[in-house]
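In this supplementary section we document a worked example of the pipeline. Step one takes a protein sequence of length 313 as its only input; no multiple sequence alignment statistics are reported here. Step two produces a three-dimensional model, which step three serialises into structure tokens for compact storage. The input and output of this example are shown verbatim.
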Amino acid sequence: MSHRRSPGIAVLGAVLIGALTALQARVNGSLGGELGDGVLAGGVSFGSGLVVVLIIAAALPAGRAGLARLVAGVRERSIPAWMLWGGAAGAFTVACQGLAVPTIGVALFTVGFVAGQTTGGLLLDRFGHGPAGVVPVTVRRVVGALLALAGVAVSLAGDRVGGIPVWMLVVPVIAGAGVAWQQGTNGRLRLRVQSPLAATVVNFAGGTAVLIVAALVHIAVVGAPRALPADPWLYLGGAIGVVYIFLSSVIVQRTGVLVLGLGSVVGLLTTSVILDAIWPAPAAPPVAVAVIAAAVAISGVVVAAVPWRRRAG
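The serialised model returned by step three reads:
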């Protein structure tokens, strides 16, 4: 019974990952708006996440054992270097959140992100990048991906996107494709070190390193930002990231990269509807349009993820 339920639980976990991603986008976007520096906001988010996950890993015996296996694997070169750079894709994503979300809102950021994540997940599963190896690209999975993209197209309906700079619509697409690669990479690293916590530490360490360098260069060019804002919730982006990256490294083994991405689509779209309804942005689509887009994307997840059985006859 538990084995039969586990795929459904994994898909619900993927939906939760998407919801947390949308929430993180709002938090990091708000911090970037307050600082006037989206790159530094991303550095703060990743740096705080690194501190949280290091404390957790050090406190738990399984975390310490996983870190020991990680260090040994790096020294012995049994862990390839590319497995250590999943955090670079996450770093790019949180920097984009800080730069774009204050202007375009969570929903439109999600539009581009979902497009990149869905198509990226389909291709990565085809070439076996995820920990599950090569996942067949069946007609059902392609139709599910196309329905998710149709939800994206619906959310673009209307004339609100006309005045938005093109780069603000392009970089979320790149970020979404990068996160699909990040999820597969973290899942494979998790299998290699037998520890989701160790894989999450690597993710945050790499992302923090990238963002610190980028933030220092940015400050050297444009100057230091304004004083740090006082609202505590603006600094929760890193902790939120710890949760969903940890979940991704576990769930991707059950779902594959594509279905993980499609489940995330549901959480992303529905949560972005709620967040933009509470904190509207100038370019956010109308609530009715966003609800229809979420419904279409959910149908894509059902088609791609639910195992339909033919009746015996």
